[in-house]
What we know:
Layout: E1 13-19, H1 38-44, E2 48-54, E3 57-58, H2 60-69, H3 89-95, E4 99-104, E5 123-126, H4 156-159, H5 170-184, E6 192-198, E7 230-231, H6 241-272, E8 278-283, E9 289-290, E10 295-297, H7 305-308, E11 313-315, E12 322-329, H8 331-341, H9 355-358, E13 369-373, E14 378-381, E15 385-389, E16 398-401, E17 426-429, E18 436-442, E19 459-463, H10 478-493, H11 498-503
Parallel strand pairs: 1-6, 1-8, 2-12, 3-13, 4-5, 4-6
Antiparallel strand pairs: 2-11, 7-10, 8-11, 9-10, 13-14, 14-15, 15-19, 16-18, 17-18
Amino acid sequence: xxxxxxxxxxxxxxxxxxxxxxxxxxxxxxxxxxxxxxxxxxxxxxxxxxxxxxxxxxxxxxxxxxxxxxxxxxxxxxxxxxxxxxxxxxxxxxxxxxxxxxxxxxxxxxxxxxxxxxxxxxxxxxxxxxxxxxxxxxxxxxxxxxxxxxxxxxxxxxxxxxxxxxxxxxxxxxxxxxxxxxxxxxxxxxxxxxxxxxxxxxxxxxxxxxxxxxxxxxxxxxxxxxxxxxxxxxxxxxxxxxxxxxxxxxxxxxxxxxxxxxxxxxxxxxxxxxxxxxxxxxxxxxxxxxxxxxxxxxxxxxxxxxxxxxxxxxxxxxxxxxxxxxxxxxxxxxxxxxxxxxxxxxxxxxxxxxxxxxxxxxxxxxxxxxxxxxxxxxxxxxxxxxxxxxxxxxxxxxxxxxxxxxxxxxxxxxxxxxxxxxxxxxxxxxxxxxxxxxxxxxxxxxxxxxxxxxxxxxxxxxxxxxxxxxxxxxxxxxxxxxxxxxxxxxxxxxxxxxxxxxxxxxx
Length: 507
């Protein structure tokens, strides 16, 4: 890590800002020049920049499970609530008298499958109207309707007309509320965690002017705010080159808008003098493909840098700004929060605290990370290689382990849902737990969770140290055998389900 340490101070408080779908390669502090991110760059100048930070479980709710519960879940279930055998770090904080505040516009936290992540916070503030949030039962009759693009009806269509100015959009309201909480409440608490779960710059990439035209001033007609989720969109004619440029520009518009409102939170930190006793984290759940290799959204393809190589910035009192090349992942944030507040957890977790790394006591906390989406490829990333292991044959055997039996809602509501467990189900135990869990195997013809559909067979391997754009597939070479064994050992270390070893041809 560059930069010399000052005399360290023990921070009493923590602010975490999770921006959804925040693309690392588009931030100025990571070398991005396409879009303006002055406030994220402003924060980066006082933070440690993590250059080899990777997603663990994807997408949205699985990533929040990694962060708040500290255990990878993509090998056991697709998308769901906190289970009976685990507790979020906020439960441990409450037991120790630490005040925790959630401020969010993230609709998935308040849907079936994500609904109990907020309940152990001391308090929460939900800013309504983003994406799938069923906030309004009808559109504003004085407004003609939200711009759209090949998406069909979404609850956002009812909400959008009720946003009149920039300050009415959910993202700006969320960050403004966070700044107010820092001004009005934070100093009244002995210790606090402020968790800002900001759904922007996630789609819809809908912004008012001047942002809407900021990066594509010549576009005419409604802005294209809903990106497709597809590989080869331009090649297949799903998008024209001109439409592709517009969608990417709309993402940039939302990124720049939310960056401006993030500045309000930094201003509140400044005027309240919190930097001397408060740690501050900026992170994300995953990136978002915006045409890199003609991939869009989060389709069923192996995870490469735009989606899985994510930003992490941490400012810690007593630690000089700089950069670290240590390998880290999302579950490490859970371990860091627990370490910072000195709280213990009772369930099995997979993270490593980053505090020794930040304070210069160690140079690394792990030598590999596991990354993936339930029912898709499993990735092992060791800083030199990104090894993607797909199903050896059919995408089976595959089981879902859960006592809450839910997954991401599918629109239009009521859309397809997972079938209930049946006579194939049996009771099993999660690693480190004596609480029985329903283990339901899927078989050919079953309705799989949305994120597991279309998983391709075969393996991929990229030398990300020499080939950062992951252009040259090394699968089938001698080095794959080494990575295969390394992946097998990493899965054994966390007691991954036996059917994952069979599905991936690692048994």
